[in-house]
Amino acid sequence: MTRMMSRPRTRGAVLVAGGLSAVLALGACSSDDDGDGGSADGGSTDCADFESYGDLSGKTVTVYAGIVAPEDQPYMDSYKPFEDCTGATIDYTADKNFEQQILVQAQAGNAPDIAIVPQPGLLQQLVATGAAVEPPAEVGANVDEFWGEDWKAYGTVDGTFYAAPSGASVKSLVWYSPTQFADNGWEVPTTLDELQTLTDDIVAKGDNKPWCAGISSGEATGWPITDWMEDMMLRVGDPDVYDQWVAHDIPFNSEVPTEALDAVGNYLKNPDYVNGGIGDVSSIATTTFQDGGLPILDGACSLHRMASFYASNFPEGTDVSEDGEVFAFYLPGKTADDHPVLGAGEFNLAFADRPEVQAFQTYLSTDLWANNKASASSEATGGGWISANKGLDPANLVNPIDKLSVDLLQDPNTVFRFDGSDQMPAAVGSNAFWKQATAWITGQSTKDTLDKIEASWP
Questions:
Q1: CB 421 within 8 A of CB 120
Q2: Interatomic CA distance for residues 361 and 218, integer angstroms
Q3: Where does the signal sequence lie (predicted)?
Q4: Which of the two residues, 22 and 253, has the higher pLDDT score?
Q5: What share of the chain is helix, strand, coil (3-state, %, to 5)?
Q6: Phi, psi of 17 (to 5 degrees)
């Protein structure tokens, strides 16, 4: 369900923890006489939305993330209304080596005030250092209001809630050419059986191979197959079995994971189905994931399973829209009523509980911030950022793929699950799983592949 709003709103955030009171005078509410500060889009901000945070003049909050230029600018732009209306300064630092350095910093006792953490597994490691602190109650209340229980669970460690979700991505997408579909009378499938029928219809027409793919990604080669398998785990199994698999409550080489990887192989290891415009099955391993879906543009292939962020890999000027050169549809469930969605996202984890940190952490958990961030991203980079926040107004999105992704995330029938390999131990999720998936696409059997990944589990 999509909730449209006349303007973004925010919960009244009365911070009782950390000594910050809502009755503080708003001494830094505005940059002009009428109480309006700057907004993320260069317009005006109603500082009444920030009144509960109090006067934070002279206070600084440090934020550390792996989100670098040019994607970092919309984050800083989205912080500006908070800065203008409270008087606080937000000091944002981006680092390509964030995932390694944040652990070092936390263990050494010099962590930032807030870190934007991209994986639940890393979040758990950071909490285990003892450096992370729980957020104020208002953050949890906002997450209860604006996200589902599934999202809150990913910010929870050993039963304690630590971090509100931030951005998100949708991985359960199949890229295609709307023009090619219209010319051939093909319909977007709504079930797995219809996807199979579509694939066979494309083969029967004989103009091209239906699927194209690429999994080469340097040291991370193989990761796109892990996404494929995770999507199939949610479809040939169900979300509960998926959770058991991710937690290793069932073996990696048990019945449902075997069925799921074979379901992937039905498409990616079938020489009649791949690798359109590129080569044979083995070419999938040597084709970069960035190049994997490009043959859609010249009609050499028709289908490419890849996440919402893949839109940025098409050449500049490509019309990515429902009636354009390329677009995406939801990878269907077993039935039209099944609606599992695989995705990823980030979480705002705090390492300090000073009043200004708690105030800013609360702002980041509101729909007001989500809409400010979406507007800033739309203006600065043409989109490419979404959130699962239910208060995100699609009117603030200019990118058609962003709108499609948010529609999926906000659909009340959606059952969301986070990328499985990102939650598994590093020895599995970012090592054996990637390596054995690559060996599998180049000829290794499903049994040997899953047996080896199972043996790698700590």
A1: no
A2: 35
A3: 1-27
A4: 253
A5: 45, 15, 40
A6: -85, 155
For residue 211, give the H/E element and its range.
Answer: strand 209-211
Domain 17-170+344-417 superfamily per CATH: Periplasmic binding protein-like II (3.40.190.10)
Given phi > 0 = left and psi -120 to 50 = alpha, else beta, which region is 159?
A: left
- Give the integer Cα–Cα distance in Å for 443 and 407: 38
Read off the DSSP letter of residue 133: B
- Report pTM: 0.88
How confident is the model over 384-441, as pLDDT tens digits? 999 999 999 999 999 999 999 999 999 999 999 999 999 999 899 999 999 999 999 9
**267, containing H or E segment:** helix 255-268
Q: Which residues, listed in sequence order, are joined to residue 280 by a DSSP beta bridge? A: none
Beta-bridge mates of residue 175: 304, 328
Q: What is the C-alpha separation between 191 and 403, in angstroms, rounded?
A: 22
Q: Give every CB contact of residue 247 below 8 A, 6+ residues apart in sequence.
A: none
The Cα 111–Cα 126 span in angstroms is: 10
Tokens of 172: 């359960």
270 φ, ψ (degrees, to nearest 5): -95, 115
| Cβ atoms of residues 16 and 136 within 8 Å | yes
Q: Beta-carbon neighbour count of residue 265 at 10 Å?
A: 20
Q: Domain spanning 173-342+429-456: which superfamily?
A: Periplasmic binding protein-like II (3.40.190.10)
Task: Please report, in angstroms and rounded to a whole number, the separation of the first and last CA atoms in the chain.
Answer: 41
**Domain regions of the chain by residue span:** 17-170+344-417, 173-342+429-456
User: Which residue, among 381, 413, 412, has the nearest Cα to 398 in the 3D structure?
Assistant: 381
